[in-house]
Design brief:
about 160 residues, 5 helices
Length: about 160
């Protein structure tokens, strides 16, 4: 598969919003958002984050991620990771996370790269260790229905 990466553009927002097909998927992607996700909510998040990136395949946006924490020579934390449902299972997420690791290392000279994943996001929990992330903490949270969930924090182990 051939992917290209570029900064997010206003024309991408509606498409990215459509990737979250349920309240639960939106919670994985953007816990602070309210259903249904709007371009305005997404733009507000982008405005407070760094390196909002789109992955494209055949000229179409198929994934999105950014950093919600970024420090020169410090920690970069990857967030807002989502992939088009039609492209899931095709390597998009892995390519996107690898690209974000590269931005953290080369642009920000990050000493540490982290991300977090909810316990019911099985796809994420299975993917991130394959990319070199290891769990280091678990935080109790409540989802939108008030149910207890676990947020698993993972750290990238540089090879």
């Amino acid at each position: 598969m051939t992917f290209t990466f570029r900064p997010v553009e206003p024309r991408d927002l509606t498409r990215i919003c459509s990737f979250a097909g349920s309240v639960e998927e939106l919670y994985f992607f953007f816990p602070a958002a309210t259903w249904p996700l709007t371009a305005e909510q997404l733009q507000d998040a982008i405005d407070q984050r760094s390196d909002s990136t789109v992955i494209e395949q055949a000229g179409q946006a198929v994934g999105f991620a950014n950093f919600y924490q970024w420090e020169q020579h410090g920690t970069c934390t990857i967030g807002n990771v989502i992939v088009d449902p039609q492209a899931r299972g095709t390597g998009v997420a892995a390519a996107l996370i690898r690209h974000m690791i590269g931005i953290a290392q080369h642009k920000h000279q990050a000493r540490e790269i982290t991300l977090s994943c909810f316990n019911s996001n099985v796809a994420g929990l299975l993917l991130y260790p394959k990319l070199g992330f290891t769990p280091y903490a678990i935080e109790e949270r409540a989802n939108k229905q008030g149910e207890r969930v676990a947020l698993v924090h993972l750290r990238y182990a540089k090879a």
